[in-house]
Design brief:
The complex is a heterodimer of chains A (514) and B (589). Chain A has 24 helices and no strands. By secondary structure, chain A is mainly α. In chain A, α16 packs antiparallel against α17. Chain A starts with 6 loop residues before the first helix and ends with a helix. Chain B is 77% helix and 0% strand. Classes of the chains: A mainly alpha (514), B mainly alpha (589). Chains A and B meet through α1, α2, α10, α21 and α22 of A and α1, α3, α4, α12 and α14 of B. Chain B: Belongs to the phosphatase 2A regulatory subunit A family.
Chain lengths: 514, 589
């Protein structure tokens, strides 16, 4: 989106490094919170109010509200010289408020709710500033920290204590902690400051727990944030935190799972594996996926097919993560589900085993150290051995990495012990199979060459006909001829996606039929 | 297998299916990319009755394959039998328009838009418009998103009842409860407005525009700014104030910097769309605010527009507005805390001189140029230097040359080679503007120093720069000033510098002409064939090949040939190779 294109991206890339260096020095400056010209409050002097604990109980409530009001004043933390006294007063007041709501009973009277929420909204809700570093790489770079954190931290703390107060009444609060409030809270998850996201995570979790009426809304909005992340921006800092919350939400889903939840799994969580920054949240994502499968094992097949569809093509690091996730899935898989996906799955694993990247090969070979997976393989050795054999046999001879070769020998030995007869047969036919593949390859090339010639000749013919005939009529002509000569071809062979013409395409047939 | 029946024009479909279903994604992708060939082999009828249904069923595949398919189908009209059958392409494209992956969906929509024009008005209503409606009321957001891009292509050619339905669908999508769909609708709002009758623009579009511009999500609001340009262009001047301006004013002061950024980014378009009067009354103060925005991102976007904005101001009040309203802001930006802002400004500020004329430039702008030429950030200085031509036309470059020189020298010696590279690229331009005398006196030594830079890219650029200078100042200048220095480097103890001599000769021989090349350059090259470093020797061979065409044939036979023959017998394999190549290219064998 064009809003994301910063001024730096429009100029030559060569400044980037220097820019980055300069930014490191200016770190912790990012804050769009303080905007005097748009602000509802102009900074002025704060004067200290008496301590709450010193006030007579009749006046405490009034003083509490006054203090809440006082804390609505915002300060510019980029400016480190002015308003020092007022900043300190606000900090002390916030501290006092935190203590007040966490230790006292009976302080949350109905009339306090709107004031509390107003103070929180004023302090927290803001448009997050543009990233100081346009190519911010969460894995490499230091995040820019929120400048006004000394105050903001206390406001978050206050919100949390407020929600956790034993007197807290969701029925009263729901008038203020509404959809709009939650949406603004969710937007803050994009904050670059990990401290802020950590608070948000706990707070959103509390809200989800206490406000039943907001649950569907929260899930739906998270859904939207994720979809935007996957398909539009590829950037959102709080994915891991949101997934962590979802992990516990999924855990609590009632059975049978609602269609809405299944859709979330298949249309959001699985495509999320394509994200560039997968490494940042893969653990949480895999946890969510496995949670789903533990709830409903019939989801195993679509999940594994989904992962196979999005299997990384060039990024070895991600491939290792995928393999890790597959192992987690296999750990909880039911044998009947395993049978359904073993063929496509082991075709992929056989490719991974043969990967020239040793970490990918190694990670997939580790599957054979897993007792449960081993038992599943043994049970289905007739199917799996023919799929795996070619790759294993080949790399046992030619992989550059000795560790891999050693691992492959062990795996081959294990497989041989499972079914030595089949193993011998495959060894014997290995060469012939390779030859057959080569021949098929040649035939394919031949076919395309002929098709290409045909295309050229047709174009040529059409060009000759341009003045007299339309292209379409010339095509029609051909078609009629074809039809006349080989009428049976029409009926016997059609493009139906279900009939299997070649046993080797049967896997794809089932895919197509989906 | 293929063509076993002996008829080239008929292939067993099974074989083609096998190709489209091949287990290897790459092979499947290749087959899909040649789908038109397959369709040709099948002929139009079987393409319609067998290939297309198959493709419609195959929608579950890798996104990469689907993308290729979506693209192919946009060009398939003739292959299914021409416009009267084009609607056969709709079912597979409809499915593709609902998939998750954005690039696939966008491509499917693009293809649908393309083939929509090939539909007859009747087919459009019978086949195309129902598809749009189905997409617009799809369950999952992807189909609704795709629908947004299709309204405008069918609206102009359908009956008025259908038009009313389309407008209703568009309205619904503008208030869809998923932000993804609202974003898609907002981004197509301007395009849709353009095909609507004016009365509906006023009655429908304006309310949608106002609603989207105050959406709860800033990602939607900012798209409304883009639509604002199209809508304002469509409306008569007298309606703008009431229908568009309230929203635009609000956008310029939006609480989200992204929306303000968008306003700044689209400022010139907005300015043209609303016309001179509103510009004077509303946009000038709005622009001032954007130039003073608290977010650097916004200031930079606005700074980028300074020149265009000033250029497009109404002529009668242009100078007054610039001098009293814009220039004060610009002055502040020159010392902005953010270097991107300064550098955005530096890339356009010189353009103001043509608008303000000589006297104002000298009095008001020159100090700013000079300040930016001394800026701590190299990019700012570079941007000033790269736009010198604008100032040159108005006040001549001499006014600047005193400050220019230190700035150039400093950039020329910058620690970052990319900065040095950038300044080299402006050398020919500077040389042209400053004249040969100034150049010889002040800049020539810099150009020679770059030839021995420790970064190859700089040496290479410096070589190329010499060629351009020679083209500018002529062969005689070259012979007097640069050729001696270049040839002097042939005796340098560093072999990289000796190679630079050869690279310079390669570049200069043509510009310098036969005489200089034969008399001065060739002897040096030939002598270097005895160099002890093999890299130098094979570059001698390459150089000879390069300058050969400039030399006459006597010289080639008498002087070049023996040397190349000697090199062709060199003990180093690379030297041999290039010597042999040169011999054969120059036809000396």
């Amino acid at each position: 989106m064009s809003s994301g294109i910063s001024a730096t991206e429009k100029v030559d890339g060569f400044t980037r490094k220097s820019v980055r260096k300069a930014q490191k020095q200016r770190k912790a400056q990012g804050s769009a919170q303080f905007r005097p010209q748009a602000g509802n409050l102009s900074p002025g002097e704060l004067s200290a109010l008496p301590q709450l604990r010193d006030a007579p109980s009749t006046e405490q409530q009034e003083l509490f509200l006054q203090k809440l009001h006082q804390c609505c004043m915002l300060f510019d933390f980029l400016d480190t010289v002015t308003d020092l006294k007022s900043k300190e007063i606000k900090r002390a007041t916030l501290n006092e408020l935190v203590e007040y709501v966490s230790t006292n009973r009976g302080v949350l009277v109905d009339s306090a709710y709107p004031e509390i929420i107003n103070m929180i909204s004023t302090n927290l809700f803001r448009t997050l500033p543009p990233s100081e570093n346009p190519d911010f790489d969460p894995e490499e770079d230091e995040p820019s920290l929120e400048a006004s954190w000394p105050h903001m931290q206390l406001v978050y703390e206050f919100l949390l204590r407020f929600l956790e107060n034993p007197d807290f009444q969701p029925s009263t609060a729901k008038r203020y902690i509404d959809q709009k409030f939650v949406l603004q809270l969710l937007e803050l998850f994009d904050s670059e400051d990990p401290r802020e996201r950590d608070f948000l995570k706990t707070i959103l979790h509390r809200i989800y727990g206490k406000f039943l009426g907001l649950r569907a809304f929260i899930r739906k909005q998270i859904n939207n944030f994720f979809l935007r992340f996957i398909y539009e921006t590829d950037h959102f800092n709080g994915v891991a935190e949101l997934l962590e919350i979802l992990g516990s939400i999924i855990n609590g889903f009632a059975l049978p799972l609602k269609a809405e939840h299944k859709q979330f799994l298949m249309k959001v969580l699985i495509p999320m594996h394509t994200a560039k920054g997968l490494a940042l949240f893969h653990a949480q994502l895999a946890y969510c996926v496995v949670q789903f499968l533990e709830k409903d094992p019939t989801l195993t097949e679509p999940v594994i097919r989904g992962l196979l569809k999005f299997w990384p093509k060039t990024c070895s690091q991600k491939e290792v993560m995928f393999l890790g996730e597959i192992e987690e899935v296999l750990d909880v898989i039911e044998p009947t589900q395993f049978k359904k996906i073993q063929e496509p799955l082991f075709k992929q694993i056989s490719k991974c085993v043969a990967s020239p990247h040793f970490q990918v090969a190694e990670r997939s070979l580790y599957f054979w150290n897993n007792e449960y997976i081993l038992s599943l393989i043994e049970e289905n050795i007739d199917k799996i051995l023919p799929i795996m054999f070619g790759s294993l046999y080949r790399i046992s001879k030619e992989h550059w990495n000795q560790t891999i070769v050693a691992l492959v020998y062990n795996v081959l030995k294990t497989l041989m012990e499972m079914n030595s007869k089949l193993f011998d047969e495959l060894t014997a036919s290995y060469k012939a199979d390779r030859q057959r593949e080569k021949k098929k390859e040649q035939e394919r090339e031949e076919l395309w060459k002929k098709l290409e010639e045909l295309r050229l000749s047709k174009i040529h013919r059409n060009q000759n006909n341009t003045h007299s005939l339309q292209n379409s009529s010339s095509n029609n002509n051909n078609n009629n001829n074809n039809g006349n000569r080989e009428p049976e071809d029409h009926s016997s062979l059609t493009f139906s996606s279900t009939d299997s013409i070649n046993p080797e395409t049967s896997m794809l047939n089932t895919q197509c039929a989906k | 297998m293929a063509g076993a029946d002996g008829d080239d024009s008929l292939y067993p479909i099974a074989v083609l299916i096998d190709e489209l279903r091949n287990e290897d994604v790459q092979l499947r992708l290749n087959s899909i990319k040649k789908l038109s060939t397959i369709a040709l082999a099948l002929g139009v009828e079987r393409t319609r009755t067998e290939l297309l249904p198959f493709l419609t069923d195959t929608i579950y595949d890798e996104d990469e394959v689907l993308l290729a398919l979506a693209e192919q189908l946009g060009n398939f009209t003739m292959l299914v039998g021409g416009p009267e059958y084009v609607h056969c392409l709709l079912p597979p494209l409809e499915s593709l328009a609902t998939v998750e992956e954005t690039v696939v969906r966008d491509k499917a929509v693009e293809s649908l838009r393309k083939i929509s024009h090939e539909h007859s008005p009747v087919d459009l209503e019978v086949h195309f418009e129902p598809l749009v409606k189905r997409l617009a009321s799809g369950d999952w957001f992807t189909s609704r998103t795709s629908a947004c891009g299709l309204f405008s292509v069918c609206y102009p050619r359908v009956s008025s009842t259908v038009k009313a339905e389309i407008r209703q669908h568009f309205r619904n999508l503008c208030s869809d409860d998923t932000p993804m769909v609202r974003r898609a609708a907002a981004s197509k709002l301007g395009e849709f407005a353009k095909v609507l009758e004016l009365e509906y623009v006023k009655s429908d579009i304006i309310s949608l525009f106002t609603a989207l511009a105050s959406d709860e999500q800033d990602s939607v609001r900012l798209l409304a700014v883009e639509a604002c340009v199209s809508i304002a262009t469509l409306l008569p001047q007298e309606d703008l104030e009431t229908l568009v301006m309230p929203t635009l004013r609000q956008a310029a002061e939006d609480k989200s910097w992204r929306v303000r950024y968008m306003v700044a980014d689209k400022f010139s378009e907005l300015q043209k769309a609303v016309g001179p009067e509103i510009t004077k009354n509303d946009l000038v103060p709005a622009f001032q605010n954007l130039l003073k925005d608290c977010e650097a991102e916004v200031r930079a976007a606005a700074a980028n527009k300074v020149k265009e904005f000033c250029e497009n101001l109404p002529e009668d009040s242009r100078e007054t507005i610039i001098m009293t309203h814009i220039l004060p802001c610009v002055k502040e930006l020159v010392s902005d805390t953010n270097q991107h802002v300064k550098s955005a400004l530096a890339s356009v500020i010189m353009g103001l001189s043509t608008i303000l004329g000589k006297d104002n430039t000298i009095e008001h702008l020159l100090p700013l140029f000079l300040a930016q030429l001394k800026d701590e950030c190299p990019e700012v200085r570079l941007n000033i230097i790269s736009n010198l031509d604008c100032v040159n036309e108005v006040i001549g470059i001499r006014q600047l040359s005193q400050s220019l020189l230190p700035a150039i020298v400093e950039l020329a010696e910058d620690a970052k080679w990319r900065v040095r590279l950038a300044i080299i690229e402006y050398m020919p331009l500077l040389a042209g503007q400053l004249g040969v005398e100034f150049f010889d006196e002040k800049l020539n030594s810099l150009c020679m120093a770059w030839l021995v830079d420790h970064v190859y890219a700089i040496r290479e650029a410096a070589t190329c720069n010499l060629t351009k200078l020679v083209e500018k100042f002529g062969a005689e200048w070259a012979q007097n000033t640069i050729v001696p220095k270049v040839l002097g480097m042939a005796n340098d103890p560093n072999y990289l510098h000796r190679m630079t001599t050869l690279f310079c000769i390669n570049a200069l021989s043509e510009a310098c002409g036969q005489e200089i090349t034969t008399k001065h350059m060739l002897p040096v090259v030939l002598k270097m064939s005895n160099d002890q470093v093999a890299n130098v020797r094979f570059n001698v061979a390459k150089s000879l090949q390069k300058i050969g065409p400039v030399l006459d044939s006597n010289c080639l036979q008498a002087e070049v040939k023996p040397v190349l023959e000697k090199l062709a017998a060199d003990q180093d394999i690379d030297v041999k190779y290039f010597a042999q190549e040169a011999v054969s290219v120059l036809a000396l064998a």
